[in-house]
Design goal:
Layout: H1 2-17, E1 20-27, E2 33-40, H2 43-52, E3 56-62, H3 77-92, H4 97-106, H5 111-125, H6 130-134, H7 143-155, H8 158-215, H9 221-257, H10 259-270, H11 275-297, H12 301-311, H13 315-329, H14 334-341, H15 346-358, H16 361-416
Antiparallel strand pairs: 1-2, 1-3
């Protein structure tokens, strides 16, 4: 019997996968022209379905497939966060899951995400659970997301869990955006300053150099340094470019391939003034919110720790949480395991201890998350305020210093006239 059910399920999935998307235009009962898209085995069946809906088909043709595979930008975490809120709202309102997926997919502007949601809907129609259907896309729907969905399905509270997941995704994406904003601004300004300096050395300084040579005057030391740098850049610009690009690519590659290097780099960043504090507070906030969500959804604590470790965004904190998992698995209290890592502030440990004793661990974790999320917001605003004058000084020294060094000989010549 089980084999027959599995065969029927697989047959249903294969039939759904054979459906094509057709673009159609039709006239409704008032003679108004309508257009849209519909899945079907062939154009005749699509026309029959349109007639059944009371419309007079005009044109039905298969939607052309892209020349180079699937089009559309990649599916971003923000897209998944918005989808989570939409599906949670619809299911809480009593809309069936399959219909909810159909509505959300129809409103997607990203073709790749639309196709993904359509495929998930087809899997559910074929008999899969939502957890199983989302498992086809582990990059977009990670292990934590799927585990929460599975816990909601098992407990019969999927709509409630999806609402919690939606809030979790929105909060985590908001804090990620804050961190990126804090790091992107100074990096972007420094890159622009570097490019401006390269343009000056390659194209502007040589013009001044020829003028100085024709004048035959002795050049000040700063001017000689700039001219020497310009000569080096003209001869070895390709080497400088290769070193910069190779260094960035090598750094990223080494971080991905070597856990020891990633740990070293992460620990180094955590020691940076201001930025290190932001990264530390962000990791604690994401740890607390992720663990609070999983605990409230009914996921076993030890089982949830692996997913929580990956959600912190920090290699150092990820390893510490896995160490906590091992300690909890042998019977230690969570607050004791946290204290052994030496990475969590005393306030966090005490809040967790109170939560364990009172049986309200999830509420305490959410309070910790809210506190540190607010701290991250304030720290990012403070960092932006501090960086603005610092960046102006760096730009002044780099670009302004070069310009002044080029004009020093002109001032000297003007003084002797």
């Amino acid at each position: 019997m089980a084999t027959a059910t599995a065969t029927a399920r697989n047959t249903g999935r294969s039939e759904l996968s054979k459906l094509s998307v057709y673009e159609w235009t039709a006239l409704d009962k008032r003679g108004k022209k309508m257009k849209g898209e519909m899945q079907g085995k062939n154009a005749s069946l699509v026309k029959a379905e349109l007639r059944r809906q009371g419309m007079n088909p005009q044109t039905v043709r298969e939607k052309p497939k892209p020349l180079f595979g699937s089009t559309g930008k990649s599916v971003k975490p923000r897209d998944v966060a918005i989808f989570s809120r939409q599906i949670a709202t619809m299911m809480a309102s009593g809309v069936p899951m399959v219909q909810s997926f159909e509505i959300i997919a129809g409103g997607q502007r990203n073709p790749r995400f639309k196709n993904m949601l359509t495929d998930v809907k087809s899997e559910i129609e074929g008999g899969s659970t939502l957890y199983e259907a989302l498992g086809k896309y582990p990059v977009q729907f990670d292990e934590l997301y799927r585990n929460l969905v599975r816990a909601g399905e098992s407990a019969g509270v999927l709509d409630t869990v999806l609402d919690t997941v939606a809030t979790y995704k929105e909060r985590t994406e908001a804090i990620k955006s804050k961190i990126k904003k804090a790091l992107f601004y100074p990096i972007a300004v420094l890159v622009v300053a570097f490019l401006v300096a390269m343009i000056l050395l390659l194209f502007v300084v040589p013009v001044f150099q020829s003028v100085f040579e024709n004048a035959g005057a002795a050049l000040p030391a700063p001017t000689q340094v700039v001219i020497s740098a310009s000569k080096f850049m003209q001869a070895y610009w390709w080497l400088v470019l290769l070193i910069v690009v190779g260094g960035v690519v090598g750094l990223i590659s080494a971080k991905r391939r070597s856990l020891k290097f990633a740990h070293f780099l992460d620990r180094l960043l955590l020691k940076f003034p201001v930025i290190g504090n932001i990264l530390r507070q962000s990791a604690i906030a994401r740890f607390a919110r992720t663990l609070g969500v999983t605990f409230r959804a009914g996921v076993p604590l030890v089982e949830a720790m692996d997913a929580v470790a990956g959600a912190t965004g920090s290699v150092v904190y990820g390893e510490a949480i896995r160490q906590m998992r091992d300690d909890i698995a042998v019977g230690h209290q969570m607050q004791l395991a946290m204290r052994q890592t030496g990475l969590f502030p005393n306030m966090v440990v005490q809040m967790v201890s109170i939560g364990e004793e009172s049986g309200a661990l999830d509420n305490m974790l959410f309070k910790v998350a809210e506190f540190y999320e607010e701290e991250v917001n304030n720290a990012v605003d403070t960092l932006s305020t501090l960086l603005e004058p610092l960046i102006m000084v760096i730009l002044g020294v780099m670009v302004g210093g070069m310009v002044i060094s080029l004009y020093l000989p002109i001032f000297k010549l003007a003084g002797t006239v």
